[in-house]
Amino acid sequence: MGKRQKNVLATITGVGKSIARDLIEMGCIIKEMSQEPAP
After folding, report:
1. How far is CA 18 from CA 15, 24, 25, 27, in A?
2. For the whole model, what pTM was predicted?
3. What's the chain's average pLDDT?
4. Cα angle at 26 between 8 and 18, to 5 degrees?
5. How far apart are CA 18 and CA 26, in angstroms?
6. CA 26 – CA 16 distance, rounded (Å)
7. 36: pLDDT confidence band, cut at 50, 70 and 90?
8. In this predicted model, what pLDDT tens digit does every residue of 4-18 receive, in sequence order?
9. What value does the CA radius of gyration of the chain take, rounded to a whole number of Å?
10. Distance between CA 37 and CA 33 in Å, rounded?
């Protein structure tokens, strides 16, 4: 049971890291878009 809990925690942290990375990338894209003058 302990092993399974560790695997679940590892999976959750892995998913959290990938989501955080996606959010950071989205934030950078939005920042770049907002810096560009509107056509």
Report:
1. 5, 10, 11, 14
2. 0.57
3. 88
4. 15
5. 12
6. 15
7. confident
8. 888 998 998 999 999
9. 17
10. 8
Residue 5 carries which side chain, given as an amino acid letter? Q
Alpha-carbon 5 to chain mean position: 22
Q: In whole angstroms, what is the distance from residue 13 CA to residue 10 CA?
A: 5
**DSSP-derived secondary structure letter, 1:** -
pLDDT confidence band for 39 (50 / 70 / 90): low
Structure tokens at 39: 């056509």
Helix locations, 1-39, DSSP H: 2-35
Looking at this protein, which amino acid is placed at residue 1? M
Q: Which two tokens stand for residue 19?
A: 């989501």
